[in-house]
Design brief:
Structural class: mainly alpha
Order of helices and strands: HEEHHHEEEHHHHHHHH
Strand order of the largest sheet: 3-5-4
Length: 276
């Protein structure tokens, strides 16, 4: 993801973390389990991740123009709100800030603390409301699975400690600003791992079904992504993201249960009608 002001070299940031608080993680196990049963190292409190998310979102709003066109924003909110409602138990967030950014890249993101950004470029690929729901379900899935907290925790555990995070959020010194920028980079801006991406795909599949969007359209989304790439994607082993076909195969494997959920929700009257 792009758009952060003042990107810094992570090596410099991590060196500062190590000097500041090399022992702050002693005695902490930080063991957690993802929604899909994978063991995780998470030592960063949710409140601090929400604070980092708010900082990152403000940076993005400062660096990237927003699109305030009413019909477009209404459409994006129409899709996003059922997704966030379905995710409320997993995120603990009731009201999300949803912003449409004028950016031609096919991207969207969700941050801890209830922040969603949608690039106008994603609408060229997510051609239906159901496909946009697949995108947003995936992004909110990263939040539910605490993937940002996992990455920040791994970085702090390797190079420093939680005291450094406290320092970054507590002042405006040059060192703190560097650290804050580095943690935002690690937690939100750099690509997630293939394992995390696959988890978010499946969490998102469940979310879109619970929200009343057709989960079968998640396959169409990744077919569109593949077409947009024009066959230029790197081999999967060279990429931080699963190959498009691998994602499709994984979604198809878990599609039967998602369709059952979707049909149940639809029979209960939940069927969002969002048109561009």
């Amino acid at each position: 993801m792009q758009g952060s002001k003042g990107r810094v070299r992570l090596a410099v940031v991590f060196a500062w973390v190590g000097i500041t608080a090399i022992s702050a993680l002693s005695g902490l196990t930080g063991c957690a389990t993802s929604p899909l049963g994978r063991r995780q190292l998470i030592v960063v409190p949710e409140a601090q991740m929400s604070a980092l998310g708010a900082q990152a979102f403000q940076q993005m709003k400062s660096a990237t123009p927003t699109d305030s066109e009413p019909a477009l924003n209404s459409y994006v909110r129409c899709v996003a709100q059922p997704i966030t409602e379905a995710a409320r138990e997993g995120t603990g967030v009731k009201d999300w800030e949803i912003v449409v950014f004028k950016d031609d890249t096919a991207n969207a993101f969700a941050l801890p603390g209830g922040k969603i950004g949608v690039h106008t470029g994603i609408l060229k690929v997510a051609k239906t409301a159901d496909q946009l729901a697949a995108v947003l379900g995936h992004e909110v899935g990263h939040v539910i699975a605490k993937h940002g907290a996992e990455r920040v925790s791994q970085s702090l555990a390797a190079q420093g400690g939680l005291a450094a995070l406290d320092a970054a959020l507590g002042g405006q010194s040059a060192g703190r600003e560097q650290l804050l920028s580095g943690l935002i980079q690690v937690g939100f801006l750099l690509p997630f791992s293939r394992t995390q991406e696959s988890e978010a795909d499946l969490i998102g599949l469940d979310l879109m079904a619970k929200a009343g969007f057709n989960p079968r359209e998640s396959v169409g989304l990744w077919q569109n992504m593949a077409a947009e790439a024009g066959g230029k994607s790197p081999p999967e082993w060279l990429s931080t993201h699963p190959a498009n076909q691998a994602r499709i195969d994984n979604l198809q494997k878990h599609m039967p249960q998602a369709v059952v959920t979707f049909n149940q929700v639809k029979s209960n009257g939940r069927s969002p009608h969002c048109s561009r």
